[in-house]
Amino acid sequence: MKRRNAMCHQIAVTSFAISACLLVNTAQAATRLPKSPWQSHASLKSSQVSPIYQQQWRQSDYQYCPILAIANDSSVNVKTAQSRAANFSGGFAVAYDLKNYKGKPLRSAYGIANAGTMSKRDLYEGWAYHKNYADGSYVTLGREGNNPQGKMLAYLVLNNGCFYNIWSQLSSEHLQKMIAQLRYVN
To answer: Distance (Å, rounded) from C-alpha 73 to C-alpha 183?
Structure first.
């Protein structure tokens, strides 16, 4: 009986040690995640972004989701781009049109849309690019519809579940720079 109790005690102590080690390793891994661009930079004032963001957000069903935007003077903004409201069922979206891209107009060259909320586990996982951030946000990106000719599209889920589409018809590099330039708007 003593031997059985000693063995049970040893198993319990070992299990506790393994659990504590896993907990510490998980906490250390979380602290190594990078801060998100919207977490690590100051929020933008509404005067620093297109007024379309505020207008669309006010009409949205998802006003509990913050506005994520790129600043008017951001290097990712094409100088000749014109922002406009874009249709996004229930959410809010701002698209940027280019009057002359490779000799012709390009509608919705790039943009940002909020599409309500979503759990990370329900997010499309078929793209190769995935990034987790220290604040619990998550980004994945690839070609729309996995079509090699499709526009570049990113799905972003904030730690509160707010879900955003960010797109660029210009390039994958442009899309990644857009994500790096996203900021909360006051």
So the answer is: 13
The CA distance from 58 to 68, in Å, is 14
Give the global pTM: 0.79
DSSP class of 46: G
Residues ≥6 apart with Cβ < 8 Å to 106: 97, 98, 169
Backbone angles phi, psi at 29, to 5 degrees: -65, -40
Q: How is residue 101 written in tokens?
A: 């891209």
Which tens digit of pLDDT belongs to each residue from 13-55? 444 444 444 344 444 455 699 999 999 999 999 999 999 999 9
Beta bridge mates, 140: 130, 155
In the chain, the DSSP E strands lie at 68-69, 82-85, 92-101, 104-117, 129-132, 138-143, 152-157, 162-168, 183-184
Residue 6's SS3 state is helix
Q: Quick: pLDDT tens for 131-172.
A: 999 999 999 999 988 888 888 999 999 999 999 999 999 999
